[in-house]
Amino acid sequence: MKILDKIKILKNDKVYVKTMSKEEIEQIPILKSFNVNDEKEASTAADEMVELGFLNEKKGFKVIMPKEPRIAKRIGYIVTTTVTAGLGKTEQDRNIKYWTYHHDEDHYAIVLVNAQVLDELGFGF
Question: Rounded CA gap, 40 and 89, in Å?
Answer without folding.
Answer: 20
